[in-house]
Amino acid sequence: MNKQQGPVPLSEKSIQQPDLAVDGETALARASQQAYDVIFLDVVMPGMDGFEILLKFGHHSNRATPVVFCDRHAIVAMAA
Questions:
Q1: Any idea where the domains of the chain sit in the sequence?
Q2: What is the pTM of this model?
Q3: DSSP β-bridge partners for residue 75
Q4: Contacts of 29 (CB under 8 A, 6+ apart)
């Protein structure tokens, strides 16, 4: 949200392709290399689950990035 102009419609924002990771180690590596506006984590990922990844974010630039946890049954939003 732009405090001076109010909300900005998504059509006016620069939206990039999402980065995808097939396992927890890849997700953590990508998060350590680039800052993101929001991160979607699968609760059950091969190698390292989303909760383990979130705990390791404390040392990366995504420490304050909002995280949305997903699983095959429901989506639960929480802030990092």
A1: 21-78
A2: 0.65
A3: 70
A4: 21
β-strand pairing of 67-70 with 75-78: antiparallel
Which one-letter amino acid corresponds to residue 61?
S
Mind giving me the DSSP string for 20-55?
--SSHHHHHHHHHHS--S-EEEESS-SSS-HHHHHH
> Which tens digits make up the pLDDT trace of 48-78?
888 888 888 765 676 778 888 888 765 555 5
Q: For residue 66, with 0-12 CB atoms within 10 Å meaning exposed, 13-18 middle and 19 or more buried, which class applies?
A: middle
Distance CA 24, CA 45 (A): 6
